[in-house]
């Protein structure tokens, strides 16, 4: 039966595919795809695990003391019966052979299927057998953990690239996906994803948007309601998830899918069109990137530079030590060279909050030791707490500046005393390079305006920086005290809040008055709903995911910036700025 539920739409487009669940609340196992050639090896591991458990259970039964209660032996009989039931091991094989799951994942997927069947049983006795099934599966998983995996076989996660073609398109359903894992998506087989948790500007959502993959987050019950292999429609525009859609609904969504592909192709034709408003104002459209390789997509989309290189993705999910100076230098240099003389703004690491260094999820972080990660040791605070590492990164960026136009951007600055430490660190990094006889070029230094404290003391900050980049994702989070990764408060995450738009307008005006460059690189810059507002505020530099550039360019081409500016005071003073802007701006755009 078809079911439908809602989450937060975070990345546009429609995805239709079979569900692959990588998060089971019952058991935590490794998930990776195995190539068809190695399926037999996995099936053999499964068979061996079953035989091992059968031997364990039989010897337990044989060694029961004579006075042991009869129920114990009967219970072991039940476990043996479940173990040999075709519904368990036989059906598990299907996940390995037909869906290419590793044995552990296949077993947990089948447990999920059977557990739901048990849950639906009328008979109390039978329903309670689910606990026995879980125990049997746990034993098998323990046996599997002891059996070796074929060499070179294991993949780090289901999101890793799969070198063989799947039959049906697949969509990923998970409780949560770490931002760094999301990067694997680029080369994975999934055409869309759904998570139970997450906010609209959580980094997982941001990475999805950067890849233009239809996605819905904060869908709460998704990984419980959707069964492995279910057909699922993801409407990334409306935040709708439809499980097991009827043929008519499916046809409708296939139609929409084709429409949005056509629309994308149409917008992509604007690639070489200069980004100029109706009244002749040039608007710089820059790209946000996570890895040097993203520069290709940035150029293809027509970006005139990189406005934000989130360097922390080089630091996340590493098996070994953090990247050293040379490794970082090579990554930055690659991005600079790939941009062929266009400017590249490299942000120093913004680790912390929903971007932990290892695979820990935000939930785990909260339960571990970090009371409130968003307010804790993140971004520049983390860098200043690790001065050696900070200087190492600055040296790597400075060295890359010998290969093109580089700008350094500091995240989450809030205190003037931090500014002094940053300037000292930069001076020392230069000195160290001089001492070592290394070459480097000139760099501009910029600060992100992400904390209200920075926005409110901007005149003092601006004296020390060449430019500012407004990070609206965090500025909204910290102004409204809304955790951007928490779906429970996502309804309060409001970019149109008068306090938020007042801070942004003021920051842009102050930067202009000081003769300093200013851009917006938060998600607002890539959302056409805010283009007119930002143009009205005088913004002429927008940084966004490459995939968003064509639709923002289209809005720029249709807007009259001078007329928009005339309406700004009304919008800023309104109780409902969104309604006011919709009315006022309509006349200034085509
Ligand atoms: C922001 O906060 O708006 C921003 C661009 O930085 P990030 O999303 O990486 O925190
Ligand atoms: Mg930020």
Write up this protein:
This protein is of the alpha/beta class and 590 residues long. It has three domains: 3-23 and 158-266, Glucose Oxidase, domain 1; 36-154, Enzyme I, Chain A, domain 2 (Orthogonal Bundle), CATH 1.10.274; 269-588, TIM Barrel. The chain has 24 helices and 16 strands. The chain has helices at residues 39-62, 70-84, 86-97, 103-119, 124-127, 129-146, 179-182, 203-211, 222-225, 247-268, 294-300, 325-338, 362-368, 379-385, 387-400, 416-435, 452-456, 458-462, 472-480, 498-513, 531-536, 549-557, 561-573, 577-586, and strands spanning 3-6, 8-11, 14-21, 170-174, 190-195, 215-217, 231-235, 240-243, 284-289, 306-310, 344-347, 406-410, 443-449, 467-470, 517-520, 541-544. It has an eight-stranded mixed β-sheet. It has an eight-stranded parallel β-sheet with strand order 15-14-13-12-11-10-9-16. The two termini are 45 Å apart. The structure holds phosphoenolpyruvate (PEP) and magnesium ion. Magnesium ion (MG) is lined by residues 411, 450, 471, 473-474.
